[in-house]
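TICKET: design request
STATUS: open
ATTACHED STRUCTURE:
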C-alpha cells in the first residue's frame, strides 16, 4: 500500500496586512502549520509528502524561513520518507525563482523539486510510483498545467501507481479565469492517473472525474480568501492507495473562517445586534459579518465601530454594511424649527436637495439619520 500526504498553498512568508496587529502572529502560524504537516507525515507513517505549489508566498522568503524548510525536509529525508515539491504561481519557476537560488535537495536524496520545466516525471522504484508534474513558470498563464501530459505516456507506464501534481484552476464559470492556469475536467478524466494532487485553490475539495481521483487540499493554515468553495482551509489530505484511492482530510489549523449574515429588519436595537455577533466570539475565528436589510435610525451601524468593539473577541472580524436606513420618519414637520434637532434636519435636507449626484445624496442622508438618532439620545454611533 502507498500512503501520501498532499499539501499545497502554504504561503510561507505571507504578510497578512489585513490582520493588523495580529499579522505577525499569523505569519508564525504558517511556520507552525508547516512543522505540523511534517509531524503529520511521520505520525501517519506516510511514504511521501507532496507539495503541489506555493510553498512560499513569493520567490523572496526570508533566510530563516528557507532554513526552516530545509531542516524540516531533512527530518523526513532521514526517515526514508520522500518529498516532492512543485513550484506554483506565487513561487513560480521564473528568472528570480527561489528554486534557482536555493537547492532544497542538497544532501537530501529523498527530496525532489520539479525545478526543470522540461522534466515531467520522477520515478520511485521502491514505491512502484511514477510522479508527473511540470513547474509553473509564471504567475498567470492561459495554458493548462496538465498540457505536458501530451508529451508523456502514462498509460503504458510499468509503475503500479501513477500520480500527478498540478497547480491551477479547474475551469468553472464564475470561479476561474482564462489566464489562471486552467484545468478542464476532461483533462482530469483523460489523464490516466490514479490521483491528481491539485494546488491553487485554498479550500479543500473534490474534483475527481472519470476514473481519476483529483483533489485540492486547500491551505493548511488560513491564508487569504476562503478559497472558491469546498470545506475550507486548515487541512492536508491523507491519500491511501488501496483497491481504490481513498482521500481523507486531516485538520492542521485551529482557526476557521465563517460568514455571518444579518438582516437589520430582524433586530429591535443596536444592542440586540451586538449580542448576536458576540454569541460567535472565538479567538480562533475569522468572522466576516454581512449586514443587510432596512432599519430605523436607532439601528445605524458603523463598520469601524463594530470591528473595534469585537476585535479582541475574534482572531479577526470584518464588517460589510449594505443596509438601507428608512427616511420616512425624518421630516421637518416632526421636528420644530426652534429646536436644535429641527434646525439640523432643515439644514441637512437642504444639503440633500442641493447635492449634485446620487452618491453625495446617500452620504448626506446617512449623516442626517445618524445625526437625528444621536440628537435623540439613542447613542447609535459607538
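STATUS: resolved
RESOLUTION: sequence designed for all positions
ATTACHED SEQUENCE:
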Amino acid at each position: 500500500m502507498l500512503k501520501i500526504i498532499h499539501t499545497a498553498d502554504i504561503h510561507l512568508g505571507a504578510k497578512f496586512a489585513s490582520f493588523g496587529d495580529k499579522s505577525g502572529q499569523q505569519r508564525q502560524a504558517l511556520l507552525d502549520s508547516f512543522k505540523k504537516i511534517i509531524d503529520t507525515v511521520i505520525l501517519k507513517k506516510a511514504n511521501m509528502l507532496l507539495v503541489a505549489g506555493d510553498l512560499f508566498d513569493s520567490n523572496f522568503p526570508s533566510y530563516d524561513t528557507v532554513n526552516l524548510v530545509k531542516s524540516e525536509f531533512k527530518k523526513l529525508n532521514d526517515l526514508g520518507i520522500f518529498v516532492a515539491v512543485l513550484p506554483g504561481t506565487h513561487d513560480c519557476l521564473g528568472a528570480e525563482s527561489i528554486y534557482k537560488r536555493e537547492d532544497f535537495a542538497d544532501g537530501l536524496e529523498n527530496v525532489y523539486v520539479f525545478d526543470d520545466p522540461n522534466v515531467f516525471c520522477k520515478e520511485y522504484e521502491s514505491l512502484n510510483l511514477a510522479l508527473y508534474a511540470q513547474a509553473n513558470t509564471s504567475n498567470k498563464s492561459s495554458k493548462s498545467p496538465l498540457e505536458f501530459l501530451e508529451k508523456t505516456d502514462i498509460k503504458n507506464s510499468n509503475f503500479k501507481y501513477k500520480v500527478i501534481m498540478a497547480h491551477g484552476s479547474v475551469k468553472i464559470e464564475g470561479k476561474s479565469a482564462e489566464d489562471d492556469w486552467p484545468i478542464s475536467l476532461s483533462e482530469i478524466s483523460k489523464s490516466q492517473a490514479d490521483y491528481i494532487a491539485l494546488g491553487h485553490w485554498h479550500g479543500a475539495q473534490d474534483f475527481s472525474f472519470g476514473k481519476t481521483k483529483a483533489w485540492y487540499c486547500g491551505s493548511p493554515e488560513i491564508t487569504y480568501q476562503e478559497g472558491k468553495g469546498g470545506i475550507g482551509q486548515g487541512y492536508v489530505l491523507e491519500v491511501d492507495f488501496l483497491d481504490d484511492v481513498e482521500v481523507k482530510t486531516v485538520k492542521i489549523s485551529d482557526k476557521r473562517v465563517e460568514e455571518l449574515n444579518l438582516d437589520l429588519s430582524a433586530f429591535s436595537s443596536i444592542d440586540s445586534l451586538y449580542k448576536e455577533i458576540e454569541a460567535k466570539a472565538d479567538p480562533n475565528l475569522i468572522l466576516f459579518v454581512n449586514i443587510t436589510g432596512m432599519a430605523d435610525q436607532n439601528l445605524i451601524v458603523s463598520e469601524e465601530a463594530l470591528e473595534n468593539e469585537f476585535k479582541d473577541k475574534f482572531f479577526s472580524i470584518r464588517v460589510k454594511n449594505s443596509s438601507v436606513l428608512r427616511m420616512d420618519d425624518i421630516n421637518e414637520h416632526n421636528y420644530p424649527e426652534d429646536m436644535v434637532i429641527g434646525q439640523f434636519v432643515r439644514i441637512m435636507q437642504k444639503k440633500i436637495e442641493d447635492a449634485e449626484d446620487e452618491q453625495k445624496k446617500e452620504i448626506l442622508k446617512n449623516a442626517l439619520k445618524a445625526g437625528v438618532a444621536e440628537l435623540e439620545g439613542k447613542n447609535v454611533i459607538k
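CLOSING REMARK: The chain has a mean pLDDT of 91. The two ends are 60 Å apart (CA to CA).
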